[in-house]
């Protein structure tokens, strides 16, 4: 999936941001969905203000970075560690099963499903490839929920979840993993407001994205 630009409607009274924000700035806002979707409560941090100030754990990994050995629990209730994927191709994303936005978690899961089908056509690659969807809603997305959700996407290509796993973990572990991969999310009004971007890199022992 290539990088993308997504249009958003800015709520009335929030148009002050135009002309002030620029490429590379970090924007924070609440995505409100009624008869249409719009951004409210907008704030942003200039790119130069976020470099090296040590005020946030949120970051974007760079080529050559070692991925920490994060620990999760998968759709079968089994513990999995990221270290088990060292030296193997791994495609990783963050989702949550109750996400209402068709252009966010549902889209990413559908894209992963399409990738899985394409990989199946190349048996040698498919044998080694792994997909991992990590839920940012660990209080709700327990193993049974993740199993039911994942089953809709793996279909007959990977019914035993051998190549695509769905996992979550403690709120602290999930937050640390999201921070490492540059993924921002915050619960609000029964939903989880989160970012959407793609990043690919190769760590010292394997390929992750």
Ordered list of secondary-structure elements with their pairings:
Blueprint: E1 9-10, E2 26-33, E3 37-45, E4 71-74, E5 79-81, E6 90-95, H1 105-120, H2 123-128, E7 130-135, H3 143-154, E8 164-168, H4 171-180, E9 185-188, E10 191-194, E11 201-202, E12 207-208
Parallel strand pairs: 1-3, 6-7, 7-8
Antiparallel strand pairs: 2-3, 4-5, 4-8, 9-10, 11-12
Task: Offer a concise description of the structure.
By secondary structure, the protein is α/β, with parallel strands linked by helices. The chain has helices at 105-120, 123-128, 143-154, 171-180, and strands at residues 9-10, 26-33, 37-45, 71-74, 79-81, 90-95, 130-135, 164-168, 185-188, 191-194, 201-202, 207-208.
Offer a few descriptive terms.
disordered C terminus; globular; 2 domains; Glutaredoxin; single chain; 3-stranded mixed beta sheet; about 210 residues; 5-stranded mixed beta sheet
| CATH topology-level name of the largest domain | Glutaredoxin
Biggest pleated-sheet summary:
5 strands, mixed
What's the count of strands? 12
Strand order of the largest sheet: 5-4-8-7-6
Taking all residues together, what is the mean pLDDT? 81
**Which CATH top level class of the largest domain fits?**
Alpha Beta
* Structural class label: alpha/beta
Could you state the order of secondary-structure elements as H and E? EEEEEEHHEHEHEEEE
| Integer count of domains | 2
How helix-rich are the residues, as a percent range? 10-25%
CATH superfamily of the largest domain: Glutaredoxin
How many helices does DSSP assign?
A: 4
Q: What is the CATH architecture descriptor of the largest domain?
A: 3-Layer(aba) Sandwich
Low-confidence region ranges: 49-56, 200-209
Distance between the termini: 10 Å
**How big is the Rg?**
18 Å
**Shape verdict:** globular
The fraction of residues assigned to DSSP E strands is 25-35%
């Amino acid at each position: 999936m290539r990088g993308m630009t997504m249009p958003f409607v800015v709520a009335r009274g929030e148009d002050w941001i135009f002309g002030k924000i620029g490429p590379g700035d970090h924007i924070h806002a609440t995505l409100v969905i009624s008869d249409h979707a719009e951004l409210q409560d907008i704030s942003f941090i200039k790119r130069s203000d976020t470099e090296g100030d040590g005020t946030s754990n949120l970051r974007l990994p760079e080529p050559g970075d070692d991925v920490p050995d994060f620990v999760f629990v998968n759709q079968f209730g089994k513990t999995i560690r990221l270290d088990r994927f060292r030296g193997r191709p791994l495609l990783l994303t963050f989702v949550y099963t109750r996400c209402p936005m068709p252009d966010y978690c549902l889209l990413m899961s559908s894209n992963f499903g399409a990738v899985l089908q394409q990989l199946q056509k190349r048996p040698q690659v498919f044998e080694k490839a792994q997909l991992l969807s990590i839920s940012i809603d660990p209080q709700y997305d327990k193993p049974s929920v993740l199993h039911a959700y994942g089953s809709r996407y793996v279909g007959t290509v990977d019914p035993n979840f051998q190549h695509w796993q769905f996992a979550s973990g403690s709120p602290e572990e999930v937050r640390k993993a999201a921070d490492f991969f540059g993924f921002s999310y915050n619960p609000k009004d029964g939903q989880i407001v989160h970012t959407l971007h793609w990043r690919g890199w190769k760590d010292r022992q394997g390929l992750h994205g």
